[in-house]
Amino acid sequence: MDAFTNLTAVACPFDEINVDTNQLCPTRFNKLPVGDPYLQKVMFHDQRFTRDGDRRNSDFIFNREPYAKAKIIVADRNWGSDQVVKVRSTRWLPLV
After folding, report:
1. β-pair partners for 73
2. Domain count, the chain
């Protein structure tokens, strides 16, 4: 693997806090192996597609230009944390 040195790309501002791993990749897709080309299609699946799963949700930021081609995510607090699940289930305030 080559060392990471530079990335020039579109950055997408994802203005939501407490984005847990189940939002990033819904549990029903967890059996996909890392590196599976289908994995990129399931990321944010429940936000990117309508309830029937057939149409793209045009309100979701990653479905709009120029962010549809973004390779960088500028995230808010508590990004990709399973701790969010504990916060929701116990009604504790998230740690800042």
Report:
1. 12
2. 1
